[in-house]
Amino acid sequence: MLSKDKMITGVIIGAALPTSLFFIFYLVMENAAPGSMHSAMIEKAILLFIGLNALVMHHFMVRREQDEIGKGILLTTFLGALVYVTYYYTDFIQ
Predict the structure, then answer these.
(1) What is the dihedral of CA 80, 16, 75, 51, to 10 degrees?
(2) Cβ atoms 73, 18 nearer than 8 A
(3) Which of 3, 34, 43, 69 could disulfide-link to 60, CB 3.0 to 4.6 Å?
């Protein structure tokens, strides 16, 4: 799957990786200390996992020279950042 350089692969990786890492982090934190995931911590964790896409994008674009996959990851990173800013810093969604 990763041997072919397709943008849709990058979109899937860019969406699935931060989402799955966030849910794993959330489950671990809630099992370790129930009630510890307050809204400020959730907000910072979401931002961290959106930013993690930059490292993954660098891996695909520079190290593996798969530019289309990198562009797909970049697209989902921009969309994730746009949703994050819209949700947490405007009254548009809430």
Answers:
(1) 60
(2) no
(3) 69
Alpha-carbon dihedral sign for residues 41, 46, 50, 53: positive
Supply the Cα-derived Rg of the chain in whole angstroms.
15
Which pLDDT value is given to residue 33? 85
What pLDDT digit, counting tens, does each position of 8-67 carry? 999 999 999 999 999 999 999 988 888 888 888 888 999 899 889 989 999 998 988 899
pLDDT tier at 1 (50, 70, 90 boundaries)? low
The domain locations on the chain are: 7-89
In one-letter notation, the amino acid at residue 1 is M
3-state helix/strand/coil string of the chain: CCCCCCHHHHHHHHHHHHHHHHHHHHHHHHHHCCCCCCHHHHHHHHHHHHHHHHHHHHHHHHHCCCHHHHHHHHHHHHHHHHHHHHHHHCCCCC
- Cα dihedral across residues 51, 46, 42, 16: positive or negative: negative
